[in-house]
Amino acid sequence: MTVEASGQDDQLLDPGGRFGDPLPAGVTLVLIEIDWQQGISRFVRSDGKEAVIPEKTLFRPDDPVISKSTYFIEANVLMVETRRGEVIGAELPQLGVQTPLGGRPVIYLDQKDWSALANTLYSPERVADGERNAASKLIDLARARKIILPLSSGHMAETTQWRNNDRRYSLALTIAQLSWGWQLQDPLTVRRSELKQALRGHLGEEHRIPDRDVFTLAPRAIHSSRLSAPKSSAGQVLPPELQLAADAMTSISIHMSVMLGEDPIPHMVADGWATKFQTITDWFAKESKNSREKRLVTDLQFIIDIRTEMAKAAAEVGMSVKQLEEWVMGHWQDEVAAMPSLGLYREILHEKQVNSGTVWKANDLTDLMYLSCAAGYADYVVGERSSISQMRQSNRRLGRPDNLYKNLSELVSSGVLDSL
After folding, report:
1. How many other β-carbons are positioned within 10 Å of the β-carbon of residue 96?
2. Is it the case that residue 37 has pLDDT exceeding 90?
3. E strand or H helix at 245, and its extent?
4. What are the Cα distances from residue 284, in Å, to 89, 289, 349, 393?
5. What phi, psi does 204 have (nearest 5°)?
6. What φ, ψ does residue 317 adopt, rounded to 5°?
7. Residue 361 buriedness (CB in 10 A; 0-12 / 13-18 / 19+)
8. Closest by alpha carbon to 248, among 51, 69, 50, 61?
9. How far is 121 from 285, CA to CA, in rounded Å?
10. Cα gap 147→137, rounded to integer Å
11. End-to-end CA distance of the chain
12. For the segment 213-241, what is each residue's pLDDT rounded down to a tens digit?
């Protein structure tokens, strides 16, 4: 039965009910579809009853990206159709389970490797045979949802600035389709979480549990350090599980709309950050310093670099200025070395600063932030050759296993994905 209604007559459930009220015994809501071009919502129940509700506020005929969104409730999956007819799927979180990895390995790809996947799909002549074969294998595994290829805000920023509209769209579509809604938590959030754990330990707290999952389906995770706390759920119309799904669908739709937009988005460049570290590297090249003296200098620069995050973390755990000073003057190096993300970041900074051949570039900040965060938590990371070499050196000093690869073919030929 199809019901077309509006206002107080919108009865998806039973007479006198409202959306969000308990359904009749044995009946469930199985599908919610929003046609953005027509301004229509469709709700389907397991007993075959259906409501089609016109809603003027949904009408977006000029939207350049999304034409239809369908939420398959039992599968907990969102399927989005673009104005060009492509279909993009995304897994959605559940209450208390926002990281349902299900034993799947997480593989974080650098931008060049996402480009290899996109070119394999849309411009295969741009990819060498070995790399194209490896890319095809990862594409098949991602489509079968046997691996997780997370999206990060770094991917979004680098993709949206491309000026070649066709290639930018192909890259963005590839990332959107193969990431399946999975995100790398904002690295600043992850780093602050690691610092908070260490500072809580310094205060004598026994339970040091990470604040957030690093690879997650949680709404707005890729920008979590730049967002205010969520509003109270008091008085919300939807039940909690549907509210979480709605928040996640909104977040995913925004990501897709931004990445698949018609126009490039200028990217701010951190020139000052690169200039600062180039000065230090050039100074090392002129001065005769032993390894201990070099480490003292690079550690000082590391502390300066993370001072804002450290201050925020201390405030959030209730640590006084005096207590923070005690931590910094104590054995902070050992605690930072144990941090999956910040420990690796510190080592890479040291490696690059003391290498006289280093030429610092503005995008090094993006590379270091995201790759060090991903490498600390992902099963495997594929990145640019020089970055991976520096990270391997850093991992060896930290006594960590090597989960780093310079290209897709190196990852695939290693055999770590053979069991999939």
Report:
1. 7
2. no
3. helix 240-259
4. 50, 7, 13, 19
5. 90, 10
6. -95, 5
7. middle
8. 69
9. 45
10. 11
11. 44
12. 899 999 999 998 876 555 544 455 677 88
| 393/153 Cα distance (integer angstroms) | 26
Short-list 139, 131, 126, 136, CA closest to 177: 139
Asked whether 181 and 248 are in contact (CB, 8 A), the reply is: yes
C-alpha 403/C-alpha 394 separation (Å) is 12
- CB–CB of 369/154 below 8 Å? yes
Structural contact between residues 130 and 120, judged by C-beta atoms closer than 8 angstroms: no
Q: Categorize the per-residue pLDDT at 206 as very low, low, confident or very high, splitting at 50, 70 and 90.
A: low
CB contact set of 219 (below 8 Å; sequence gap of 6+): 93, 244, 247, 248, 250, 251
| Single-letter amino acid, residue 265 | I
Cα–Cα dist 127/120, whole Å: 7
CA distance 36 to 78: 15
33 torsion bin: left (phi>0), alpha (psi -120 to 50), beta (else): beta
Is the per-residue pLDDT at 314 higher than 80? Answer: yes
pLDDT of residue 9: 35
- CA dihedral (188, 191, 193, 195) positive or negative: negative
* Of the candidates 77, 37, 75, 64, the residue with the CA atom closest to the CA atom of residue 249: 77
Strands 50-54 and 2-4: parallel
Contacts of 262 (CB under 8 A, 6+ apart): 64, 165
CB under 8 Å to 60, separation ≥6 — which residues? 36, 37, 39
If you ran DSSP here, which 8-state letter would residue 91 be given? E
Quote the percentage of the chain above a pLDDT of 70: 88
Average pLDDT over residues 185-197: 93
- What predicted TM-score, i.e. pTM, was given to this entire model? 0.90
Collapse the DSSP code of 181 into the 3-class scheme (helix H, G, I; strand E, B; otherwise coil) and give the result. coil
